[in-house]
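User: Could you write out the 3D structure of this protein bound to nickel (II) ion? I've included everything you need below.
Assistant: Certainly. Input first, then the structure.
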Amino acid sequence: MSFRANGYLCIERITTDEEVAWLKGIYDQLFAERAGEKEGLYYDLAAPRAHKGRELLPQVLGPDFRFPELRESQYYRNALKLGTRLLGVDEKVTAGGHMIFKPARYGAETPWHQDEAYWNPDVHLQSLSVWMPLDAATVESGCMQFIPGSHEEEVRWHRHIDNNPLIHGLVTDDVDPAAAVACPLPPGGATFHHSRTLHYTAPNTTANPRRAYILVCSGPTRQRAEPAHRPWQADEREALAKANIDVEVF
Ligand code: NI
């Protein structure tokens, strides 16, 4: 079963146990520091911006700004090498990272979505996301689940979680979860998925944290004749302005 046919691929290992152990230290430090919160690089994906409650699905964007050595990791190099091959582009492919944390017992679901729904509507993309767990990822802790073949279709209608545009996380209702395929993985394994592949992770109901480090690999973009219609993006910017929350939306 191929990436081209399914829109995703799972591999049992992309880096060493030693590197996973090293990455856990960096990961925990970034979340403890809430690294880049002022610049809009740290927030809860599943709750309104600047909320005061416990963090349901915190995210750190650009962890390599704080720790440039991440770009020298085997994970980064292997993800970029394999990602380039899977994208099938000859031009230069770049990688950008983020980390999504599902706390033990109450980490929220990441509802069904396509990554491209978040991204620049002005261009055609050549992108895929690499997702590596630092902890055992099971259905119960929030491993990746995909809808095979969904990458062949357009970006579907999305809305913000709870219909609240102050929540960055998006969800599409246009999906049949019965068609989902789960990809449980050991720490240091990885999934690759196309920017249009529908995917989901369940809430973490286990006693262990579920730490994931994601790299988005992107080849050159091409300008669209007309921007894609993704009004949920403007809804979020307007809601933030109205609430006087001055962050850039990444
Ligand atoms: Ni995603």
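The two ends are 33 Å apart (CA to CA).
User: Perfect, thank you.
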